[in-house]
Amino acid sequence: MKEIIEKSLNNAISYLTYRDLVSNLLAEGKSTGPNQSEDILNYSLLNDRRMKRLDKTISISEETKTALKKVKTPQTWLVITEGWCGDAAQNLPIINKIAEENENINLKLVLRDENLELMDQFLTNGGRSIPKLVALDSDNNVIETWGPRPTIATQMVADYKEVNGGLDADFKKDLQVWYNKNKSLNLQEDIVSLLR
User: Fold this and answer.
1) Cross-referenced Pfam families, in alphabetical order (predicted)?
2) For residue 172, is it within any domain?
């Protein structure tokens, strides 16, 4: 697995480069990944707007900032993502802001569909769910993982699937409303619980 991680790190990009990549592709009428359907493009456009808004408005709690001070040794947060993913759009801006709070945390991103070998090492319930954060020490050993969504949202998804057999458009709207109301607090709590 270490070899797969190191190969992916060689292809990894910064958060700002990722944001530029998504925006530039959208300017060409494209999204990340091999699927270039109209739906995928529309999700990507919506997600780009979400990320722009969150980049400007999100703030990190004092509790999170205090907890981040205990990260004293260098680590890399490798996040597997795609521009069309709604959960990634809601979580990546916050993960980026959190990483910016501590110089020992180096945030790197890779596209899932270009790194399936890596993705397959970090499946969620057997699926290639994203975003997936893999925290690595300075020797690229896995410290912790997180994803694809905050714990409360994960429970919402599980409960809805149990009753309805799957997710539909109404649930996806409800999930976005939850993200907006929660203002990233659950994600920040989750990340703080992973800090080493």
Assistant:
1) Thioredoxin_9
2) no
